[in-house]
Every structure is written in C-alpha cells, then in structure tokens.
Amino acid sequence: MTCQLLPADFPGYQPYCPYTTPPHDGAWHGPDLATGRRLARESGTTSTPVTVWNVDGLDDIRVHSYLVQLLRQLGYRATLRHISAGKAAKAVLSPHSPAQAGTSGFGADIPTVSNYFVPFLRCRSLHQVNPNGAVNLSWYCNPHAEQLASQALASQVTDPAASRKVWTQLYRLVSNQAPVVPILNASPAVFVSARAGNYREQPMYGPLLDQIWVK
Q1: Phi-psi map region of 133: left, alpha, beta (phi>0 left; psi -120 to 50 alpha)
Q2: pLDDT the model gives residue 130
Q3: Using a CB cutoff of 8 Å and minimum separation of 24, what contacts does 146-154 make?
Q4: Is residue 47 part of a domain?
Q5: What percent of the chain stands above pLDDT 90?
Q6: C-alpha closest to that of 133 among 112, 114, 115
Q7: How confident is the model at residue 79 (pLDDT cuts 50, 70, 90)?
Q8: Which of 72, 75, 120, 187 has CB 3.0 to 4.6 Å from 46, enough for a Cys bridge?
Q9: SS (H, E, C) 142-207
C-alpha cells in the first residue's frame, strides 16, 4: 500500500500518509473509516450520486465493485456503470465529462521525480493526452502546485538538494488534496532459469528477450 504518488526509491520521497489509522508515522496502517465518514458529511457532497466507471475489457470489476462498496460505507449513493473503452477515452477528455470515479495506472517512461506529477496533474495537461499517454483524469489544476513544480524543475540541476525539498512539499500537497488516491506501487518479479544469461529489463516493458541468451 502507498499514500503518495512518488515511489519510495525516488529522490525527495519521505514517508507520508495523512489518511490512515494511528500511529501517524508516515506509513499505512489501515483505513480510518470514522474520519472518512466525518469528512464526507462535512463536505456536504454525500447527497450527490456517484457513478464508478468500469471500462469493459480493461478494468477489474472486482476492484470497482469494492470501490462502490467503500463509497457507500462513507455515505455516498454509489453505483457501478460499464462503459466501452472507446466511449471512456472520448469522455474523459471532454470539459463536460460525466466521469466521476474509476481506477487507472501509470508507469513513468523516464524514472524522474517530476514524472509522477508533470504529465497528468499540471494545468497544462488538461484537455490533452501527453506524449507518454498520461491524461489529467482528475482535472486537477492548482496554482500553488504549479508554482512548486516550476520551482523544483528550475533548481533540480543547479541545486538538487533544494529541488528535492520542494518536490517533497509538492507531493505532500497532492496527498492532502487527493485529486487522485494512490493505492500501490507495483514491483514485478521475474524468475530466470540458471541456464539464462545477460538478463536485461526495461522498466515499463519488462525483459528484453533479444538480449538474453540461453545455454
């Protein structure tokens, strides 16, 4: 489980989890449903119906069924809707998108600290699909976050230590505001035969089969 977008082995990462049961030591210890229900009531949004989209052929219906159940536990009138991949892709880019909730995954094409915010949470990423396929599904656009991102990017070469501190601040801000809710960081394992050699792997696409030899 994770509570922030930035993976643990990246510069600027510090354990931080604002929505969990005590002790509040930066790690995930389980859901704090009591606080969640209170915040939902205080937000005044529980009277609004929430539809969770399940994209046919792409999403795991078990995950979305659980999400619907969880939203109901928090006091929302949640339902599950099945939608085709084509209709979903077109709808999420619309300024008047009917999409409310769902799940998605992201793999950074370049393993840099900026690549977990810039492609799909900056204001400039609205209304478009970025070159690496990322989309600002949450329609998040925060001027303060924009300022922090610009500051961190400007100093990451000339003053890496200062840049890391700003990235830490930025990712904490995103965790607090929760435009997206990170669930986990996938860490796949590959088993290789003792007869194989020269194993090479690309972070997004896995084993490079043309580089491996077998006795």
Answers
A1: left
A2: 60
A3: 146/122, 148/173, 149/114, 149/117, 149/118, 149/122, 152/113, 152/114, 153/114, 153/118
A4: yes
A5: 51
A6: 115
A7: very high
A8: 75
A9: CHHHHHHHHHHHHHCCCCHHHHHHHHHHHHHHHHHHCCCCCCCCCCCCCCCCCCEECCCEECCCEE
Question: Which residue range(s) make up the domain with 211?
Answer: 185-215
Whether omega before 11 lies within 30 degrees of 0, making that bond cis, reads no
Choose the final residue of a domain: 79, 103, 127. Answer: 103
Is the pLDDT at 174 greater than 90, yes or no? yes
Q: Is the model's pLDDT at 96 over the cut of 90? A: no
- Centre a 10 Å sphere on the Cβ of residue 100 and count the other Cβ atoms it contains: 14
DSSP letters spanning 6-46: S-TTSTT-----SSSSSP-SSS-----HHHHHHHHHHHT-T
Residue 80 lies in a domain: yes
How many domains does the chain divide into? 2
Cβ neighbours of residue 159 under 8 Å, at least 6 residues apart? none
Q: Could you identify the residue written with the tokens 């991102």?
A: 149
The residue whose two tokens read 């792997």 is 201
CA distance 41 to 32: 15
Residue 52 counted as domain residue: yes
CA 41 – CA 52 distance, rounded (Å): 20
Would you call 92 helix, strand, or coil by DSSP? Answer: helix
pLDDT band of 135, cuts 50, 70, 90: confident
- On whether residue 79 sits in a domain, the answer given is yes
pLDDT at 131: 57
**The two three-digit tokens of residue 198, written as one number:** 């020269």
Closest CA to 147 of 120, 126, 177, 117: 117
